[in-house]
């Protein structure tokens, strides 16, 4: 992948597309290369511009997101698909997650979280907003069980993988810095990692990121 990340936004509300552009305007590495407001247009857009990442609304006028994951994969096999929704409790969310998307982000995400999610998705790291709970990845529960990581240790690890410092993680998750350090040490021990870089690497190899 080139240094520039090509992003497409699929949403039938222009204010959302404009909002994404606004939030990303200060990051020169991410370029919005197109938008679509229907499922049919989204598939055509994906085939034409082959974006690195698609932000996909849960509900479109002509289809639910779960119904077009397959067509999008066929149109642009290398593209990462991240559901972008305001409805963390919507009944259709589980079907979309089961369809095999690469992540889920809530629409109230700030600029920092949006940039981080797009960057991680573009580099092959699954990104799921922790607020959608264990529905995000049924396979994740098995992976956490296999490694012995707790959900909170995983949350801290995910933020570390996004490049956040311990103080930033503490503020984001409402923890003390000492607690964050403890969670990371536990994760290193459980994954047999000697440092933060090795921890993130082993977590990615284990399918946790």
From TrEMBL:
Signal sequence segment: none
Keyword terms, alphabetized: DNA-binding, Phosphoprotein
The keyword DNA-binding belongs to this UniProt entry's keyword annotation: yes
Cited SMART domains: HTH_LUXR (SM00421), REC (SM00448)
Coiled coil, from the record: none
Domain HTH luxR-type, chain residue ranges per copy: 142-207
Residues recorded with modification 4-aspartylphosphate: 57
Full protein name: Response regulator transcription factor
Organism taxonomic ancestry: Bacteria, Bacillati, Actinomycetota, Actinomycetes, Pseudonocardiales
């Amino acid at each position: 992948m080139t240094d520039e990340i090509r992003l497409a936004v699929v949403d039938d509300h222009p204010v959302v597309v404009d909002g994404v552009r606004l939030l990303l305007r200060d990051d020169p590495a991410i370029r919005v290369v197109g938008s679509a407001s229907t499922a049919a247009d989204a598939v055509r857009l994906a085939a034409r511009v082959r974006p690195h990442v698609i932000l996909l609304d849960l509900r479109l006028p002509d289809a639910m997101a779960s119904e077009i994951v397959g067509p999008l994969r066929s149109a642009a096999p290398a593209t990462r698909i991240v559901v972008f929704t305001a409805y963390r409790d919507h009944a259709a969310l589980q079907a979309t997650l089961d369809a095999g998307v690469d992540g889920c982000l809530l629409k109230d995400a700030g600029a920092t979280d949006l940039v981080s999610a797009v960057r991680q998705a573009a580099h092959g790291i699954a990104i799921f907003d922790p607020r959608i709970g264990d529905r995000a990845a049924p396979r994740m529960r098995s992976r956490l069980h296999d490694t012995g990581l707790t959900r909170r240790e995983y949350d801290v690890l995910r933020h570390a993988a996004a490049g956040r410092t311990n103080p930033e993680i503490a503020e984001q998750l409402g923890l003390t810095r000492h607690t964050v350090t403890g969670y990371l040490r536990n994760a290193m021990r459980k994954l047999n990692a000697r440092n933060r870089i090795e921890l993130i690497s082993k977590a990615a190899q284990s399918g946790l990121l």
